Amino acid sequence: MALTILYFAWVRERVGLAEERLTPPDDIGTVAQLIGWLAQRSPGHAAAFGEPERLRAAVDQQFRPLEATISGASEVAIFPPVTGG
Amino acid sequence: MALTILYFAWVRERVGLAEERLTPPDDIGTVAQLIGWLAQRSPGHAAAFGEPERLRAAVDQQFRPLEATISGASEVAIFPPVTGG
Amino acid sequence: MIDISVNTAAIDVAAVHALVEGNGAGAVATFVGIVRTDDGVRALTLEHYPAMTKAALHHIAADATRRFGLSAIAIHHRVGTMLPGERIVMVAAAAPHRHDALAATAQCIDLLKTEAPFWKREEHAAGARWVEARAGDDAAAAKWSDGRA
Amino acid sequence: MIDISVNTAAIDVAAVHALVEGNGAGAVATFVGIVRTDDGVRALTLEHYPAMTKAALHHIAADATRRFGLSAIAIHHRVGTMLPGERIVMVAAAAPHRHDALAATAQCIDLLKTEAPFWKREEHAAGARWVEARAGDDAAAAKWSDGRA
């Protein structure tokens, strides 16, 4: 199923895109699996997703751990830990 | 020795004066003793100083307990607990 | 920088905030105490001990500056008669880091309640009364007694 | 009353303060975070996740309102590029009593650091870098985890 994937901060810079719309294979069930699959798309993606422990995610605009499911989600965002305030 | 004595809040209202200049007898050594001596000056003073546990004091513009000495002081203030802020 | 004011004029929040900003501070915390509008008070009068007040506020501000490494602090306290909704006091503390600015503000307002010579008189429909000090204020002030000069 | 704003315009301290005053509040506390001027940063750019940001700030504000019985709270966060000395964020909380207003402000700014989708990018003379999250921020946010929804 097609998924909107958003990138922020240095993840966005390394990927070279703020957003893409992709249909991951059926065996991609979690954010962590999605990250592993995205890492293979380009050298930029590889640079962004090479160290998953540095990444955080939101699924349908809720912060979720990388082990969270993406089943049924329409939007996943991947980014470094937040630094606002 | 002459002492400037200041009153604030309901102490001032009961005494009927904001300030007086008095020379207490030599045997008045502490704020508490001064309060006991002042209580005898008028019905207003008696009403103000009848319950010393409700009073607080400053000696030469420093908060001091009622047991503090007034020896050498030039200004003593007597008032209820503060309620600013 | 320590800025103390005891004045009958209204407190200008933006002006007091501006006094402590700058100088590299990354964090400014403020506290404003306001005459309540919901408890039947028609007017509040603040009496103080003019010869002592500014020194007492300066002592509170200097203590907080030392303890929390403030770059600047302002304590502005109004005196005289004010109406419900009007500001009684403003504390503004600037520091490199947020927890210091917030803790300094909390300490100053707690100590103001017990260590500065102000007295509040409330006018109600039934007459006027002097506000009684609250035991909770002493307890709040005592929390800060460690590490003070 | 909860007022959330995410905007590229400068933050007006008096205007945000005025938003939460009134309604009988006896106490207003605020926190303002400012771009430091003393660490060689030439400019700071705040990126955010527009579809998520206001909801995240509203959640933080609603949590504090419930926990501390606030009469009003405003969280205004700036995004885009700002210069040293400019304000990044302002939290203003109004409550009947001072400790609630101060604690709510502290909780909101701590949770903002870990639960709102903002990212800071600093420009130095040597180039730009994304600010790293600090372990201390997680610890500060965790302090508030009891009693939250």
TrEMBL record, chains A, B:
<dbReference type="InterPro" id="IPR012675">
    <property type="entry name" value="Beta-grasp_dom_sf"/>
</dbReference>
<dbReference type="InterPro" id="IPR016155">
    <property type="entry name" value="Mopterin_synth/thiamin_S_b"/>
</dbReference>
<dbReference type="InterPro" id="IPR003749">
    <property type="entry name" value="ThiS/MoaD-like"/>
</dbReference>
<dbReference type="Pfam" id="PF02597">
    <property type="entry name" value="ThiS"/>
</dbReference>
<protein>
    <submittedName>
        <fullName>Molybdopterin converting factor subunit 1</fullName>
    </submittedName>
</protein>
From TrEMBL, chains C, D:
<dbReference type="InterPro" id="IPR036563">
    <property type="entry name" value="MoaE_sf"/>
</dbReference>
<dbReference type="InterPro" id="IPR003448">
    <property type="entry name" value="Mopterin_biosynth_MoaE"/>
</dbReference>
<keyword id="KW-0501">Molybdenum cofactor biosynthesis</keyword>
<dbReference type="GO" id="GO:0006777">
    <property type="term" value="P:Mo-molybdopterin cofactor biosynthetic process"/>
</dbReference>
<protein>
    <recommendedName>
        <fullName>Molybdopterin synthase catalytic subunit</fullName>
        <ecNumber>2.8.1.12</ecNumber>
    </recommendedName>
</protein>
<dbReference type="GO" id="GO:0030366">
    <property type="term" value="F:molybdopterin synthase activity"/>
</dbReference>
<dbReference type="Pfam" id="PF02391">
    <property type="entry name" value="MoaE"/>
</dbReference>
<comment type="pathway">
    <text>Cofactor biosynthesis; molybdopterin biosynthesis.</text>
</comment>
<comment type="similarity">
    <text>Belongs to the MoaE family.</text>
</comment>
<comment type="function">
    <text>Converts molybdopterin precursor Z into molybdopterin. This requires the incorporation of two sulfur atoms into precursor Z to generate a dithiolene group. The sulfur is provided by MoaD.</text>
</comment>
<comment type="subunit">
    <text>Heterotetramer of 2 MoaD subunits and 2 MoaE subunits. Also stable as homodimer. The enzyme changes between these two forms during catalysis.</text>
</comment>
